[in-house]
């Protein structure tokens, strides 16, 4: 059965590091680096948590089916090695145990591998990355953290279909990072340009010819090599001017975020040329369908890019592990244990509770015995990850074990029933009060002995989203 993109979503973290802050902190003057910003993942976010947020948006209200049981996860900043990260995303989406979930990681080109595999098998391609550069480097200034996800299903229900694809591969040393290093290194720019441009011309030429078009309406260029990306953008300019905004380079998520941004504004029946130049070149030609205008993502990329809260450079370095600061005067939490995490998988990763069939009381975490009517084993599962709620009461802990104190803990009443105490992420105390509307976000509570403790937090709902 021919497959196409039936849903998509993008996620940009809330925090922003401005170029003025970078310039002032590094002694080069507040205006030396311009007036741009870069997106920064919070201390409790990583490639997995951002991938969950993008995938939730790509699925929307769609019920899981045999197509979404396949999940391909691409990142060059995996939270785990020697263990799949895709399985945590699969569990957080409450997709059950059937299906195939695997990583295609290690380099930005893995994003194209995930897209092509999902397009062939059906399912989700989740592209996510957290980009770190050495202080004062171009990677630090021009990087971006974020994620995008694409759901592939029946072409008859597609928002966009793939008309043609072509690839060219070559082995040359342009950018690299060995295991254990946080930042990449790169070779001289002119050498990379000499290697990339012929590969781009070859792949793009074959893709356009196979699609039967000479020029696309929209052109996306994704590459860690800035010069080659600029030349390709000028050479293969689309009929519609680009409006990507100053996102920066997002690694494995870059092509996906830019494709999502085009889908946010493209019209029906328009063509999209996606050029990804990383360790070779991959070119894809897509055509949008009449379904796209009425089924765009609820969170446009450019709208997310415009929002955000500014971050101090010292805080950014602390979150990235580059600045070792005095820890909180509290005992460190214990390492999460494997057996209880496995037993509570649906609750811990999917935020799945139970609702009594007899009286309707919602239990968080799930329970066999109803607290209200005391019936036993009269429960049905209820997933709350997509539900909003209201703050019933909250506390502010300024001595908690947290890389970003103070910690805000709120008792949340979920819409439709259920109450639980959750940490509030990405907010200051003056942004939370009784009655504040919140939504759920998959986060990392802490990491001990190399084990990440993933769970859910609450984030404040913006007024326009409520």
What does this structure look like?
This protein has 466 residues and is α+β, with helices and mostly antiparallel strands. The chain folds into two domains: 3-319, Peroxisomal Thiolase, Chain A, domain 1; 338-460, OB fold (Dihydrolipoamide Acetyltransferase, E2P) (Beta Barrel), CATH 2.40.50. The chain contains twelve helices and 22 strands. The strands form six sheets. A five-stranded mixed beta sheet has the order 1-7-6-4-5, with helices on both faces. Strands 18-19-20-22-21 form a five-stranded mixed β-barrel. It has a four-stranded mixed beta sheet with strand order 8-13-12-11, sandwiched between helices. Helix 2 (47-59) crosses helix 3 (86-92) and helix 6 runs parallel beside helix 7.
Which short descriptors sum up this protein?
five-stranded mixed β-sheet, 2 domains, single chain, OB-fold domain-containing protein, OB fold (Dihydrolipoamide Acetyltransferase, E2P), 466 residues, alpha+beta
